[in-house]
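Title: Prediction job returns without error message
Component: structure pipeline
Severity: low
Priority: P3
Assignee: unassigned

Description:
Job completed but the reporter wants confirmation the result is attached to the right record. Sequence as submitted:
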Amino acid sequence: MQNHSPYSLQTNWRVLPFCIADQQQHIEQSERLLAEIGPGDLPVLYWSRAELEGLVLGFSQKHEMLNPSALAMLKLPIYHRRAGGTTVLVGPHLLSLDVALPADHPLVLSDIVESYRWFGEAWRAALARLGVETHIVPIREVREQRALLKQENTRLRESVLRRACYGSLSPYEVAAEQRKVVGFDMIRRRAGSLLQAGVLLHWDTEILAQLLGHTLEEQEILRKGLVERAVGIDTLAGRVVTAKEVILAFEQVLFSVEI
């Protein structure tokens, strides 16, 4: 475990220490944050990174979707999250942020999709502070990409790429051109919401290609296609960008705005 800073308290936000640990510990902490949040509570930020590489499946995904030969060879731990979405490879390349918001907080909107907008804007502004130009993904771009699933000549490729979280776009996520940089998901309960972001410090497609591709053709689609669909901020910045830099930039943006 590693601390980014001691426990800190901003005027409108409670920030827990940056934690590097087993991914299961992070999943359990996320669930605690959502279970414990209540009306009138300060919203909470929890920064984390998996100490070792592992594969996190979406709520409805099963082990059977993985290539058993690759799974036996790579011996990666498998985790399950409560949120929807698809497979995420965690490890030193991915910085995660959980934002727990009480149900009465002004950032919790009745429109679930629009509840992501502020999050995307904050991430876009934070990355700009690091010299990385991105944009938030408009709903139009998401619809255009989803339409590829209905076209005969692109249906197979799209269905394979969508096995990975970073193989497709969702509204208000953060991208550089058409390549995702920050992915989102959300869990909403009566007492509050948990917004989650995964920031690609670095992006490599080989492990996901092996695990999610059941044939050589599918693996090649993933190997090449995921390079076109996502990118690490190290590539965009032309240098290694540390988790500490990203955390500082995001918190500077967030705490400079009175919510």
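Comment from assignee: result matches the submitted record. Residues 1-9 have pLDDT under 50 and may be disordered.
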